Amino acid sequence: MAPQILTLDSISLVDRSARMEGARRIFEETAPTLASLPADARQAFQQKYFGIYLETPETFYLAVEHDLVLGYLAGAPQTLPLHFSLNPYLEQFRTEIQSRYPAHLHMNLTAAARGMGLGSRLISEFVKDLSMMRPAPSGIHIVTSRDAENVKFYLKNGFQKTNEAGKLLLMARGFS
Ligand SMILES: CC(C)(COP(=O)(O)OP(=O)(O)OC[C@H]1O[C@@H](n2cnc3c(N)ncnc32)[C@H](O)[C@@H]1OP(=O)(O)O)[C@@H](O)C(=O)NCCC(=O)NCCS
User: Fold this and answer.
1) What total number of domains does the chain contain?
2) DSSP assignment letter at 140
3) What is the pLDDT of residues 14-46, one digit of tens each?
């Protein structure tokens, strides 16, 4: 069976903590610098890029094959004051985010599941759900590095290079 895309809130409470743990392992796998941080910094990093998104399970997506989590997309329909305060670098892009691209996401797949279309499927599901919200957000952004490999992936998924600040690149996609 092909991997399924599920939101966390559609998974029974009995299975949910195991799936969340699967996603957490992928978050840790894909953040190689995490292990070198002191425990409190590690905890803060995990919380701001992963943990806070578990609190909105209707926009936390999992790619699941049988019982195995292959990847996740942690989505936010709005970039809130909390996100700006946890990530001060966002200030450089505040104008674009607030005026046009308020939604955002963080996503990661386990290495063996990359390049098979799952990342694109995760984005499609999130964008479909955003378009059905009332009011629907006008667009979505991500922040990556100018030289990151994933720039190609986002371009392929309809995002455009929208602004730069140092090494940081704002990529965004409008929905109108
Ligand atoms: C980036 C990522 C989410 C893409 O998901 P995916 O399922 O591998 O991507 P898809 O199969 O849907 O699309 C692959 C396309 O994206 C491009 N791409 C860009 N970066 C890529 C990467 N790191 N790995 C795989 N493909 C990548 C490929 O060129 C490919 O295009 P093609 O089919 O024309 O060759 C996933 O590879 C991943 O988790 N990478 C590591 C972590 C990461 O970069 N997360 C994003 C943080 S902003």
Assistant:
1) 1
2) E
3) 999 999 999 999 999 998 788 888 889 988 999
pLDDT in tens, 78-114: 999 999 999 999 999 999 999 999 999 999 999 999 9
Are 74 and 50 within 8 A, CB to CB? yes
As for ligand 1, residues whose beta carbon falls within 6 Å of it are 30, 107-109, 114-120, 142, 144, 149-150, 152-153, 156
Structure tokens at 98: 């607030």
CA dist 94 and 175 (Å) reads 19
Read off the CATH number of the domain in which 156 is found. 3.40.630.30
Q: Is the Cα torsion angle 163, 83, 173, 152 positive or negative in sign?
A: positive
pLDDT tens sequence across 119-161: 999 999 999 999 999 999 999 999 999 999 999 999 999 999 9
What are the residues whose beta carbons fall under 8 Å from the beta carbon of 37, sequence distance 6 or more?
A: 45
CA-based torsion, 16, 17, 18, 22: positive or negative: positive
Write down the pTM of the prediction: 0.95
pLDDT of residue 34: 82
Q: Domain of 40?
A: 4-174
Q: Which residues partner with 142 through β-bridges? A: 171
- Which residue matches tokens 């952004």? 141
If one residue of 27, 114, 141 were mutated to test the ligand 1 pocket, choosing by the most ligand atoms within 8 A of its CB, it would be 114
